[in-house]
Amino acid sequence: MASNNFVRVEAVKKIYKMGEVNVHALNDVSFEITEGEFVVILGPSGSGKSTLLNIVGGMDLPSEGRVFVMGNEITEYDERALTLYRRNTVGFVFQFYNLMSNLTARENVELATEICKDALDIDEVMSAVGLGDRSGHFPSQMSGGEQQRVAIARAVAKNPDILLCDEPTGALDFQTGVTILDLLSRINKDYNKTVIVITHNAAIAQMADRVVKMRSGKVIDNYVNAHPVATERIEW
């Protein structure tokens, strides 16, 4: 059953001290995400979207405010609870893949699943991302798009509740980027994962169920997209 506040961000602020200056990366950010949504957090560089993703992912803490995930206030977790949250609840996909160069594609995925309590079958996931016949290759033997597929497989194989994707198409050409977005969309539907993609690319918002727009550390719009478009119709 879908929850209307699967992720709930309440009045979150994040202030960094840069010498004598306080930098307000997030300023009173609030919104909710429903379970199973494909969400795009959209904003230019410096809008605070990566900081927000890090807080929702349990990699950083807010200066003020609260974040709830599946009814649990993660902003009250101690370090051990945050480690378990990152391990079991969240899967991360980064712009530059962050693969282990000395491991094969399959070994990269396997490494992530070894510490998870309910991991998916690795070979099934490798096949689902279209890399069943490339699983024995090393990252240096793969294209950027293939490496990003490995990164997605690594995140999905953990069987997390949420997939957090930080500019997943940022290092890719247009056609490869669309292919990766299509893969994320299929994972959202086929595996029933809540997917959150942060991007500066407004065109990607067309495929989202929900769009959260950010500027200067604030949410300036948060709306449900009544008619998401198929990935093959996205152009930028």
List keywords for this structure.
6 helices; single chain; 4-stranded antiparallel beta sheet; 28% strand; 6-stranded mixed beta sheet; alpha/beta; Rossmann fold; 236 residues; globular
Q: If you consult CATH, what is the topology?
A: Rossmann fold
Number of strands: 10
**Quick one: overall form?**
globular
Distance between the termini: 35 Å
Query: What is the strand arrangement across the widest sheet?
Result: 6-7-8-3-9-10
Q: What is the beta-strand fraction?
A: 25-35%
CATH architecture: 3-Layer(aba) Sandwich
Main sheet summary? 6 strands, mixed
Indicate the CATH class: Alpha Beta
Any idea what the CATH superfamily is called?
A: P-loop containing nucleotide triphosphate hydrolases
**String of helices and strands:** EEEHEEHEHHHEHEEE
Number of domains: 1
Count of discrete alpha- or pi-helical segments spanning 4 or more residues: 6
Helix/strand class: alpha/beta
Radius of gyration: 17 Å
